[in-house]
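User: My instructor asked us to take a sequence, write out its structure as tokens, and then describe one feature of it. I'm not sure where to start. Here is the sequence I was given:
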Amino acid sequence: MEIIVNIAQLLPSFHSETVVRGAPEIRSLEASAFPAVVLFNGREDQIVIPGNPLSKAREFTLEALFFPFAEGEEEQRFVHLQNEKGEDRILLETRLTEDRQHWYGDTIIAAGEQITFLNDPQKLHPTGAWATMALRFANGQMEQWVNRQQELTAPAEYQPWAVGRISLGQRLNRISPFAGSLAALRFADFPRAPQDLWQPAQFALPDPR
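Assistant: Let's start with the prediction itself. The structure tokens for your sequence are:
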């Protein structure tokens, strides 16, 4: 199974079950791999969609193509999947440096009482540039990749859940908003080979601002 989600197509004019808070902005990117992306203002903007593409996946890869701005809160949670009937969740996050010129990745898998975090403040990437982040889970191991480079790995627990929601632009409980642009997500029910992970150069997207 593989699902690619173009974020611009999730807004209500395209998808009636989407809940939108604030005013996420669709920005056209002509002659690019994704003809439109969504800008989040780092305050109230949020998109919530029902469902869980990984509902039957005991192994998975979750990828995001995004553009973080040099502004907003230090902690920015831009992709949040959560079990509708509990606290099990998966998150993709950034942590901005004090001068907002760089960020590092933070990925989370929470399963029951077990919560595993992967982050390293030394693994910095520039704001104001397209990036990809991937979270892979297989054989009890969680891996964080940025721009097709593996950064961190650790043992983790994970069990799929059937009914859930996905929040984009901030956590479901409306904290840690994201300032930046989100182009697409890709879900797979297998650990995607490293050479097949997304990287920004393959899309050649222009600055969305």
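For the description part of your assignment, you could build on this observation: The chain has a mean pLDDT of 93. Try explaining in your own words what that tells you about the chain.
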